[in-house]
Design a protein that fits this description.
The structure is a homodimer of 156-residue chains. With 156 residues, chain A is an alpha+beta fold. The first copy, chain A, contains 4 helices and 6 strands; from the N terminus they run βααβββαβαβ. Strand 6 of chain A pairs antiparallel with strand 5 of chain B.
Chain lengths: 156, 156
């Protein structure tokens, strides 16, 4: 059974939300078979990141989250925003929660004075890519027929 | 005439290197027709970023630079490193400077305790992609036949 569509309640997470944030990150990494610390350890780690403002989290309690990083821009006095993670739990997908999280994330970025946002995603993550493209993100530097931009990574 | 190959002198930039760093960033953005502040303004901005450690710069004086950003990792006690820019001036390309900058950047990242590094680059930037892939970066999450990862961005 799919749960009914409704306006998801998205809010800015505070340090006291560390358990809710950590639980979603735990489920996220387990779903994609990525290594993840034990839940208790993750709660402590996430609380530290929220307290130090190293992460900004938009939270739809029990449903999903978006994790943002802000840095002063290299060339201007504004901020750059890296959208590090966007996750919606399987049972609540296709209910508009990803869109609500992304819109809240972009609103938060603008409120903080960011002038630029970026993120990485897989070519096969068709739903996420449609969401990002619908919100104005481009993997071709904004030029419809331009070369695509790749996201490269490695462990150190 | 191509200048002879030699070991480029790559060092960690200090706030006093702001003029050298700003000049390279200025040339970089002019070369790619990207908007960039006037040089004097850029020097002041870059000095502030170096002083506050918002950026880490590996510098080959007059030849090129790599700009790194460090953030505490979302899941572990290590750091993530974003390789925001790598640039070599046109007259000094294909002399090993990009490789020297990247190796110094990865060494610096490891010295700082980073466990993960990422960057974005265009599919048509064949030389840069060969360099990154030769240094162990993957745009397929490390799986040779896996789906590619895209770098999405937008102005806000």
């Amino acid at each position: 059974m799919r749960l009914p569509m409704r306006d998801p309640a998205v809010r800015l997470a505070e340090p006291g939300d560390a358990p809710s944030v950590a639980l979603l990150l735990y489920d996220f990494n387990r779903e994609f078979d990525e290594p993840v610390p034990e839940p208790g350890e993750l709660v402590r780690h996430v609380r530290g990141l929220l307290e130090s403002a190293a992460i900004t989290v938009l939270l739809a309690e029990g449903e999903g989250l978006a994790v943002l990083r802000f840095q002063p821009s290299l060339l201007s006095d504004s901020l750059d925003c890296y959208l590090e993670e966007v996750y919606v739990v399987p049972a609540r997908r296709r209910c508009g929660i990803g869109t609500a999280l992304m819109k809240a994330a972009l609103g938060q970025a603008r409120d903080r004075g960011a002038g630029y946002a970026y993120l990485g995603t897989g070519e096969d993550d068709v739903g996420a890519r449609a969401l990002y493209e619908g919100l104005g993100f481009s993997h071709r530097g904004g030029q419809a027929s331009g070369p695509v931009n790749y996201f490269y990574e490695r462990e150190l």
